[in-house]
Structures are given as structure tokens and as C-alpha cells.
Design brief:
The chain has 191 residues and is mainly alpha-helical. It contains 9 helices and no strands. Helix 8 packs antiparallel against helix 9. The longest helix is centred in the first third of the chain and has 24 residues. It starts with 8 loop residues before the first helix and ends in a 6-residue tail after the last helix.
């Protein structure tokens, strides 16, 4: 049986990413995508192996989109300006594309992860940290800290965890980034 005209792995991935933003990444399946295209599920299997393959492709797309945004935002910036720019890329991406943001957290096997844009994210974060004069292993600790703070804050905010209290979350976000900048500039030496 010939593949349906117009269906490609790339198109299915793009529509899957749109679907993730609409209904949530966890709800994306090959069956749901087949309904979207008004085709039988079997007709998609010549393009994607299963829902895990589809989700992996969406995750890789989301990581690539996020890396492209981060690269644009970081161009020509250093120090706190770079830190704030990178942080805002993650927060804005999560707000604009909640399903894709969730997809960017999808666990990838090591080989797929190393071939994807996650490596670019790490390199950009390490480049940002060179402005804070951190050596290894402090650089790795700082990469993990920034990822944890960005993701943690964004996840709580997106889940409505800050909705019922003042001050405004933008004010808190700015204070968090100020605190990170101070911490990175005064990073404690290993004992």
C-alpha cells in the first residue's frame, strides 16, 4: 500500500506539535493524529513507528525550536543580559507552546539525545557561564542549577501555583534572575 499523499514524518511531527500545544503533550498519540488527518491509524505507520516515536520526534522538534530561539536571544549578549535573555526564552516558549515545552522535557535515549538540539542548549548555557568565570565542575553544577530553576519556576507558574498570591509573577521572576546573577558572580569555591 502506497503512503497517503501529503503525509510525511515531518508533517506528522509538526501537526503533532500543534496538537500537543492544544491538548497537552501527554494526549498526543498516533490514533489522535490519525483522527486529525481523517485517516486510518495504519496509514501513519509508514511514517512513524508508534506513539513513542511520534513523541520523540515532537521532542526533537521542540528542542530545536527552543535552541533556535535561545541562539537568537543570546547573540551579542553576556553576563546578566545573557542570563535574563536565556531565562525569558524558556519562560516565553512555555507560555506560547505549553505542549512543545512539555515535549522538550521528554526522556530521550542517550544516542537520540546526543544527536538532538539538547547539546546546543548545554553549549549555549556553558557559553553564558563563561561570562561568570566558572570552571569545571562548577560550570556543570551551574548548568543544572539554571535548568532546575528555569524549569521549576515555569512549571509551577504554568500549573497555576502562583495564581492566588501577590506580588505579580513577573516581579518574582525578575527577583529570581537577579538572585541567580548574584550567585553566579559570587559562586563559592569547592571546599
Amino acid at each position: 500500500m502506497a503512503p497517503r499523499v501529503g503525509l510525511t514524518a515531518e508533517r506528522l511531527t509538526a501537526v503533532g506539535a500543534e496538537l500537543a500545544d492544544e491538548v497537552g503533550f501527554d494526549q498526543v498519540t498516533v490514533s489522535e493524529l490519525a483522527r486529525r488527518f481523517d485517516v486510518k491509524v495504519a496509514s501513519l505507520y509508514s511514517h512513524v513507528r508508534n506513539s513513542h516515536d511520534l513523541k520523540t520526534r515532537i521532542a526533537l522538534l521542540a528542542l530545536e525550536e527552543l535552541a533556535d530561539r535561545a541562539a537568537d536571544a543570546l547573540a551579542g549578549r553576556a553576563g546578566k543580559d545573557a542570563l535574563v535573555a536565556l531565562a525569558n526564552v524558556y519562560r516565553d516558549f512555555a507560555r506560547e507552546h505549553p505542549g512543545r515545552y512539555a515535549a522538550a522535557q521528554y526522556r530521550l535515549d542517550p544516542e537520540t539525545a546526543m544527536a538532538g538540539a539538547g547539546v546546543r542548549h548545554s553549549r549555549m548555557t556553558r557559553a553564558l557561564l563563561r561570562g561568570y568565570d566558572l570552571d569545571e565542575p562548577d560550570q556543570t553544577h551551574a548548568v543544572r542549577l539554571l535548568g532546575s530553576v528555569f524549569h521549576g519556576y515555569v512549571s509551577i507558574e504554568m500549573g497555576g501555583g502562583f495564581d492566588h498570591s501577590a506580588p505579580d509573577t513577573q516581579e518574582t521572576w525578575s527577583r529570581v534572575l537577579d538572585a541567580l546573577d548574584v550567585l553566579l558572580r559570587t559562586w563559592p569555591s569547592a571546599p
